[in-house]
Write a structure and sequence with these properties.
The protein is an all-alpha fold and about 400 residues long. It folds into two domains: about 280 residues, Fido-like domain (Fic-like fold), CATH 1.10.3290; about 100 residues, Orthogonal Bundle (Arc Repressor Mutant, subunit A), CATH 1.10.10. It is built from 16 helices and two strands. Strand 1 and strand 2 form a beta hairpin. About 45% of the residues are buried. Strands 1-2 form a two-stranded antiparallel sheet.
Length: about 400
């Protein structure tokens, strides 16, 4: 494969098949199981807790998607960027701005996906690219060669990606139209992951933008999975943790047809199916991981361990905080007085404890008399959600 000449693609039939045609029963069985498990996740805890976790996952998505591109910044720098606190080091500040743009773009695109937009369409990936790059000033949106990246604009020049030469710019409309014919419609329930996987690979194959194709594809895929994930798990996390294999699998699915038993299209149906199998496996891992994290007995134990550790190292934190914190995780926003009563401490001591929990970031509130909510600060994740975002516990870059 490595020594074959670069193929020229000018007609849409040349990137068929767009979906695997064989082995569908096993793919659908796995896909259905993942979807059903994912849908159960959103019923595991209070909606307010879900909303808090969703913000954490959105930060994590930014980190991992940019890490895939070799341009990530430390999670703590992302947190600083969300507070508009940018580094005085130009390179770090630029990566902070890219991370912040990704978070804001993802939030906006999720709203479109929740509103019923056809996420697996050329119009949506154009919207995704524009949502990301329009949030950056021109110096922050340049290729490695220094060329400006116009937000949401199809490329107007030919490019090569390794051994793959995508369709020329003049042929993009035809390829994108064919993509829309296949993908821009609601799939059957058990086909959702299969379709999302195939669309991700084939859109990357088209490579419609001069740069930023990977980020835009992952934003599109995230939004396509949104109806089942509710933003509670991250396919980008799974892809980033197997980055080299991700690129290898994408590349393998570009392969031409290998004989009469490899489908009827110009490209390999076998390799496309293998890509879909691998992608579904990534989703399986991520959903199973978050299911374990949401297990109520496990969360109770982890909260207890966190408070025990904090109490041993910070005299402001008392063991009595564990029970009301677990209540916040389960029940959502709670009146301050109720939280203080659950500690079993005297009024003044309980009030001081709650104030200290807010100061340390374990509890949050919108005002001095507003209800309190559970929070997931980066320095507590190694206890509360171990291995979810281990980079957050590492030393800053």
């Amino acid at each position: 494969m490595k020594n074959t000449p670069i193929a020229q693609y000018t007609q849409p039939h040349q990137f068929e098949p767009l979906l695997p045609q064989t082995g569908l029963d096993s793919l659908r069985e796995r896909s259905r199981a993942v979807i059903e498990q994912s849908l159960r996740l959103s019923g595991a805890v209070h909606p307010d807790t879900i909303a808090t976790l969703r913000e954490l996952v959105r930060e994590m998505n930014s980190y991992y998607s940019n890490r895939i591109e070799g341009q990530s910044t430390h999670p703590h720098n992302i947190g600083r960027a969300l507070r508009r606190d940018f580094s005085d080091k130009p390179d770090v500040a630029r990566l902070q701005r890219v991370a912040l743009a990704h978070i804001e773009a993802e939030r906006a695109l999720e709203s479109a996906a929740g509103g019923g937009a056809a996420t697996l369409s050329s119009a949506f990936i154009q919207q995704a690219h524009a949502a990301l790059y329009s949030r950056l000033e021109e110096p922050d949106r340049r290729t490695a060669e220094g060329e400006a990246i116009p937000p949401g604009q199809w490329r107007t020049k030919q490019v090569a990606v390794g051994r793959h030469e995508p369709p020329p710019s003049s042929a993009l409309p035809a390829f994108l139209a064919r993509f829309d014919q296949v993908f821009a419609r609601a799939p059957q329930f058990e086909d959702q992951l299969i379709v999302a996987a195939a669309a991700h690979q084939r859109m990357a194959w088209i490579h419609p933008f001069i740069d930023g194709n990977g980020r835009a594809c992952r934003l599109q895929t995230h939004c396509a999975l949104w109806p089942m994930s509710s933003g509670l798990w991250s396919v980008s996390r799974g892809l980033a943790r197997r980055r080299d294999e991700y690129y290898e699998r994408l590349d393998a699915a570009d392969a031409p047809r290998q004989g009469d038993l490899d489908g009827r299209g110009n490209l390999s149906e076998r390799e496309l199916r293998r890509w879909c199998e691998w992608f579904i496996g990534i989703c399986e891992d991520q959903v199973s991981f978050m299911t374990r994290m949401f297990h109520l007995d496990g969360m109770k134990t982890r909260i207890q361990a966190l408070i025990t550790f904090r109490a041993a190292h910070d005299k402001r934190i008392r063991p009595e905080a564990a029970l009301p914190l677990y209540h916040l995780f389960l029940a959502g926003p709670t009146a301050r007085g109720e939280f203080q009563q659950m500690t079993g401490l005297g009024e003044r001591t309980a009030r001081k404890l709650l104030s200290d929990l807010i100061d340390t970031g374990l509890v949050t509130s919108t005002g001095h008399v507003a209800p309190v909510r559970v929070a997931f600060p980066l320095d507590a994740l190694q206890f509360l959600l171990p291995e979810l975002y281990p980079e957050a516990a590492s030393r800053e870059d």
